[in-house]
Amino acid sequence: MSRTLDIAPVAWSPLASGLLTGKYTRKSDATEERRLDKAQFKELDDRNLKIAKEVDAVADDLGVASASVALAWVRQKGVIPLVGATRANQIETNLSSLDLILEDTQIMRLDDVSGIDAGFPHDFVQTASGFVYGGMFDSIVRHRDEGIGVSPSHRLRPTGATTSASANGAG
Description:
By secondary structure, the protein is mainly alpha-helical. Helices cover 42% and strands 4% of the residues. The chain has helices spanning 35-38, 46-62, 66-76, 88-96, 104-114, 122-132, 143-146, 164-167, and strands spanning 10-12, 80-82. It has a two-stranded parallel ribbon with strand order 1-2. The chain starts with 9 loop residues before the first strand and ends with a helix.
């Protein structure tokens, strides 16, 4: 819905209260304070631990922190992560995610382990799209992907890019 309405989604607690930092899945200092030990904002069930362990595995493959992988994953999905920290090293780790670009295969691994069953009406739409669109659904041009019907001010531009109007002082 946010993409359809050209609204940037913001992720609250993109590290799942520390679950995606490796804090709950890796050996750590027993004296380290962990948020989910006090209050269960995020359930520590098998599914969530499996997701966290896959984030750890991708981080190990890349030689980076699990938190960096989790934040890069969220950003590469087009979501703005709302991050917080209680220590300076957490801020540094969070910022290091800005330099990390995950490969498509890594994103697929994370998407596969975290996927949810959308249920009705999504599964119905998926099943019925062949009938409704006469088998042509995949051939239909997605107008937002092509920038058709989107005002120039709403098109995504690389950082530092200018339009001809703004370059001439008109924008």
